[in-house]
Request: fold
Amino acid sequence: MSSRATLVPVFVLVLAFSERASALTSYVHVTVKALQNNGGYCPTTRNCTGSYYKQAQFGVNRPLRDLRIYLKSGNTTIGQGVTNVGGQTLIAFFWPPPDPLNISILIKFEEGNGRWAVRNLSGGVVTRQPAVGMLPYTPDSWAPTMRTVTLGTAAVPDEHANLFDVVTKAWSNGLSEDATLQSLFTGVSIRGFTSYTGGDCPTSCAMPESKIIKISEIHRYSMIPMHEMGHIANYLSHRGGAFSYGGCYTYPSECSGFPGSASGVWYPDSPEWGSASFEEGLATFAAVAGYYARSAPVPYFCDYASAPCQAGTFDVEISPTCGSGSAGMPINVTRYFWDLYDTVNDSETIEREMHRVLGVLYSFPDGTANGAEDEPRVPLDPDEDGRSLFDYRKYDDVPPAVWSANCSPSPGD
Ligand SMILES: [Zn+2]
Reply:
């Protein structure tokens, strides 16, 4: 009996080892591209130094980065990956797959670290699932099977793939440079597309408390989704506090009961309430930083779809002509932030990195007092204009010369 007792465990060990050795791994290298149809690119007629998105990249298949994809065999997930800057990922999967004739690549429009997902209006993550046929057995990771998935065509671009692409640019080129946002910017839901004639965010909006962004059908293929990402970033600087920007726009006719309702429409070059021009101008700064590096001499913002920003839209680096109401124009707030951030010397030599520009937002004191982070909660007072650029300047330690280059807001609170 004693010899049999020792034989049994030895036999089990050998069996276990041989099973492990016979488990096979195969590799597939997947590239995901989409027909690039987003607007706001830098046209060949303009100085595109520092542009992350030039005309040559428009209308052609471009890689989709930071995208989560799954390898499916029938209904079974057999592998997964996140695409790199080249839209590529190497996926290992057990061989043989359970349903070898039915292999597909499930693309979920989710950012690889869970920072955001592109969803439909009811909240479901948007997916694509192209079949890729049979995959051969390729056990060497350095010689995998190659597969490329291309979403959309010039005739029918993929609107959700383009939405994913544009918000990825906002994050990877700009907002991600702020370490605090690195930890806070998660779980954002980006939903498309609302009707321009409906009652639900007809001109796009961000609902920061719930981290939901809704994009209008009129803002498909535009820079606007990056602007909405900027609203989320600003909200997160309130450290979860009682953010209460009320959407009072046109100064002074809207929101007579300030802070009032959340209705109304703003324009980059129309005078808005100080709190509105600050909120919208800062959000637009985030959008510009998604498309242009700090070295760009001619960074632009617009909401044109599938086209470059047109003449008459917004060069963010120029020093504007200042007249009545200029201080309340959101685009001039954007220009102020851009001057803090850029490395181009147009009457100022300040070169602050993104974390320093946004970091000032965290230095607002708590509360609803004048100059505090939730100032819009104070009752209407003609001398108080919400959380504004004027308030920001109290904490940013920047000389007044930079203020006036961008139509410094007149003294107020
Ligand atoms: Zn906005």
